[in-house]
Amino acid sequence: MAETRHIQLPIVAEEAKGENGSATDRVMTKLGFGKHKRWTCIFLCTIFLLCGQSVALLLGRLYFDKGGKSKWLATLVQFAGFPVLIPFYFISWPKLLTANSSGTASKQPSVLKLGLVYVTFGLILAGNGFLNSVGMQYLPVSTVTLISASQLAFNAFFSYFLNSQKFTPFIINSLVLLTISSVLLVFHDDSSRLAGVSRGEYAAGFICTIFGTAGAGLLFALQQLALRKLLLKGQKFKVVFDLVIGQTLTASIVILVGLFASGEWKWFNGEMEEYGLGKFSYIMVLLWTAICWMVFTIGAVGLVLEVSALFCNAISTLGLPIVPIIAVFVFNDKMDGIKVISMVLAIWGFISYVYQQYLDDYKPKIEKTSKTSEACSST
């Protein structure tokens, strides 16, 4: 996969820096910061993604577990946290975290094109969020998390057509294992169902989670395509904020319309009064769920920008064991044999993918060393 196009994004940026880099970039490179800032960005985005994802999923389950009933409200908090990003939008520190800051002035995409991208992504995001909320309402959080592992397989499928993703034996092995880990949950024992959830509701939650996961895989592949073809004209990390705010604003508007059209907004006061942890905790659960999803979104889009959509999904899968294990203690979820096998297969699939990434990074170094040795011997 070292030859695939999605890996070329940072390489092109580095070449642009060499030819057109600003004085600041040259100074930072001399100080040793330039060659590390991309990995600093990747590390920070990874932390944002894993922490945001884990906490947001647990808080989402807590909302329903303690008396929350509105799927539209549970979906809205997944996107409504975007205003917290606005103050950071004008801060200059993100410029230090990008590996794509060339000094060239290129023609920017039209407002119409950008608007179309944001609206399209926002609609997909809104649909995925609602489907995931249905799954979270009817399924244990551990089951939702394990099903979500198949997002890597869906993303690889869509990336093959949209981003020329290449498949190696290790990638194929990873995708097969992740698919099997999700299919196993279809044969899960009914005793794992939440109290008060019927067989039909459990099936609906399972199907909605699968479709939501597939939609998320498609969205990541589309984001990678848009970032490379359309949004990276200026090659600024600021484009991450543009994309996140644009798509989450659209998704929030769509979900707000659904919330009022469904009449679930009338439940707000009643839910707050009857919430098992009290009014203040009710508000805090919704508030921190919104913030954590924004942290996750920033990390996810940042990884798509710096590496690839498939890499972003692999890192998301890395957080797979965290939520089910915590859910056993917090929500008394059952961790039976099928779930354990599903988790092991998903982790195995992730390791297989990471090993392929290691080979992709290692092979060019070996080739470069070989060429250097041959050049020295010939002289």
TrEMBL record:
Protein family membership: Belongs to the purine permeases (TC 2.A.7.14) family.
Compartments it resides in: Membrane
Predominant subcellular localization, coarse grouping: membrane
The organism's place on the tree of life at top rank: Eukaryota
Transmembrane segments: 39-60, 72-91, 111-131, 137-158, 170-187, 202-227, 239-260, 280-303, 310-331, 337-355
Keywords per UniProt: Membrane, Transmembrane, Transmembrane helix, Transport
Organism of origin: Hibiscus sabdariffa
Membrane topology field: Multi-pass membrane protein
UniProt name for this protein: Probable purine permease
InterPro entries: EmrE-like, PUP_plant
